[in-house]
Design goal:
With about 325 residues, the chain is α/β, with parallel strands linked by helices. The chain is built from nine helices and 14 strands.
Length: about 325
């Protein structure tokens, strides 16, 4: 049996525990949370031992891996304590509060030959997986721009970070993943309209190494939830809805003839819209199964510490530019 533990059982940690209990050949060995009330709400349901101190959990239960789903300010401390014991870690995004803390986690993991995965869960969304497959197969042709929207009401449960670290991290990781490129320039505008020390509206403009433009639109002031990404290229535009796990393609009829840079007679005409069949699946389960498989095989996780660090650096560029 693969022994695993969860540290932090707020809303996300509870979901991790729920899914882990349903994965074959995986044994949840314990839960740690500084709030024993929170811990018991989950642990009593699954008949698991409860710890207030994560180090006691590590010492007494000897998990092979741990899910870290605590507030961001505690990520580094708990990750380092696990890594030094040889425990592999999946850290909920963002990887850490600061770039220096993230680098410390990665350095320590390399020293102890421990896997670090970061919970950028949208990479495991079936609609995103299909979108990535079609992009890599050349169905979009040359990519021109990518536009990410992640809008929500204000989450009262979060008080240690702003919307950039909480929501923008998802979309920045998506942009890097889908384009396969790194960002070379960032400009942004941020706003604080709620009674909070952190930003709650972010608009960002990014330019990637190959000239692709990215538009980032995230906020905590929209009275509905929007999770949508569009990626536009020579042959049309893909639209993905994360929540409904739907993927659409709007064809550019004029792309029947390839883009010729020499003549540059490219144009755009509206064409057919196609809705693709997606086999829906809970992304969290796929994420956890992928992490566990990486630990078992010694392979590289889909989103490793360096991915988490790259995204965090972009977050700081955005907040510093805004």
């Amino acid at each position: 049996m693969f022994k695993i533990a969860v540290v932090g059982v707020g809303s996300m940690g509870r979901n991790h525990a729920r899914v882990l209990m349903d994965i074959p050949d995986v044994q949840m060995v314990g839960i740690a949370d500084k709030s024993l009330n929170n811990a018991h709400m989950v642990a009593d349901k699954y008949r698991l031992p409860v710890y207030e101190d994560h180090n006691q959990l590590f010492n007494e239960c000897s998990p092979r891996a741990v899910i870290i789903a605590v507030p961001t300010t505690l990520h580094r401390e708990i990750a380092i304590d696990a890594i030094k014991r040889g425990i592999h870690v999946l850290i909920e995004k963002p990887i850490a509060s600061t770039i220096e803390e993230a680098e410390d986690i990665i350095k320590t993991a390399n020293q102890h030959q421990v896997i670090v995965a970061v919970g950028h869960i949208e990479r495991f969304n079936p609609a995103v997986i299909e979108l990535k497959r079609r992009i890599d197969a050349g169905e979009l042709g040359q990519i021109f721009m990518i536009h990410a929207r992640r809008l929500s009401p204000y989450p009262r449960r979060i008080n240690d970070v702003g919307v950039a670290k909480d929501l923008a991290t998802h979309e920045l990781d998506m942009m890097r993943y889908l384009t396969g490129e790194e960002v070379v320039h960032v400009s942004a505008e941020i706003s604080k309209v709620m009674q909070s020390p952190h930003e709650d509206i972010v608009f960002g403009l990014l330019r990637f190494q190959n000239g692709i433009l990215g538009i980032l639109d995230v906020n905590w002031v929209t009275p509905t939830i929007v999770r949508e990404l569009t990626i536009t290229g020579e042959k049309g535009m893909f639209v993905v809805n994360y929540l409904s796990q739907e993927l659409f393609f709007h064809e550019n009829m004029a792309s029947r003839q390839p883009l010729e840079r020499a003549g540059w007679d490219f144009t755009v005409n509206a064409g057919h819209m196609t809705r693709f069949q997606i086999n829906k699946r809970e992304p969290l389960r796929s994420e956890l199964e992928s992490f566990i498989n990486a630990v078992k095989t010694g392979g590289k996780p889909l989103i490793d510490g360096y991915d988490g660090l790259a995204t965090l650096k972009l977050v700081y560029q955005i907040t510093n530019n805004g």
